[in-house]
Amino acid sequence: MALFILGLVIFFGAHVFSAVRSREPGKDLKKKMGYGPFMGTYTFVSIIGFFLICVGFNETRGMGLVYSPPSWGKHVNFALMPPALILLVASQLPAGRIKKWAKHPMLVAVKLWALGHFFATGQLNAFLLFTAFLTFAVFDRIMVKRRGDTGPAPETPVKLWADIVSVVGGIVLYVAFVMYLHRVLIGVPVIMPG
């Protein structure tokens, strides 16, 4: 459990620092260090944290239930994951209608992902993981709003191809996770054999 908690602290520590750091001229560490060195350090620390989360999560399997998920919980998760993955893809593309509507599609995707998984599993390690991600996504949304970052500006031209790629890419990712990737990467099959 110690590795898992350490990973969460390192990963989210880096993300919280980035969310609250000063953006004022002369005080912004990102500008003081330079974009490359700042992002390199931020990425390096985040990767270390994420690696420890993965190792720790695996080591804490079977530590018990926080609650028993409802029988219909997995169906809720199945329903929330396609839009979450579509939004995830949209967050990495130029503005389409999806990105303009969501404003911060990555944060909405994380909220849907975490919320859906609360309904699907009540394991202690999963509960801690999804609580951490959901809490940070809510916190970061508050911080970006305070900074006046409302996502793509209203006058930003909409790219239809970005919406098409978001939907197709998100559905392809969803099918890949359901059929194969969730079992390989997380160690838990989405569809139980038999």
Automatic annotation (TrEMBL):
Membrane topology: Multi-pass membrane protein
Compartments where found: Membrane
Source lineage: Bacteria, Pseudomonadati, Pseudomonadota, Alphaproteobacteria, Hyphomonadales
Residue span(s) of domain NnrU: 4-189
Spans traversing the lipid bilayer: 34-55, 76-95, 115-139, 160-182
Pfam families assigned to the protein according to its UniProt record, in alphabetical order: NnrU
Superkingdom of source: Bacteria
Primary residence: membrane
InterPro entries (UniProt xref): NnrU_dom (IPR009915)
GO cellular component: a single term: membrane
Protein name: NnrU family protein
